Amino acid sequence: MDVMGHENLSVIVAETGWPSSGIDSGEVDETLLYSEMFLKGLFWLGSWWGW
Q: What gap in Å lies between CA 1 and CA 11, rounded to an integer?
């Protein structure tokens, strides 16, 4: 990324597993609402930490 002119760019890697309604029939399916909640929480956490 330095070669492309992005010398001081922080990179944050986040990993999550989404429910799939596989073995446990009580799992909650992935929805756009839960995806939105996760991303908003991740961005809030990033702003709180100064990312």
A: 11
pLDDT tens digits, one per residue of 3-29: 888 888 777 777 766 655 556 556 566
For the entire predicted model, the pTM comes to: 0.46
From 38, 31, 1, 37, select the one nearest 16 (Cα to Cα): 38
Q: Is 30 exposed, middle or buried (0-12, 13-18, 19+ CB in 10 A)?
A: middle
- In angstroms, what CA-CA distances link 25 with 19, 21, 29? 10, 6, 10
Phi, psi of 8 (to 5 degrees): -110, 45
SS3 label, residue 41: helix
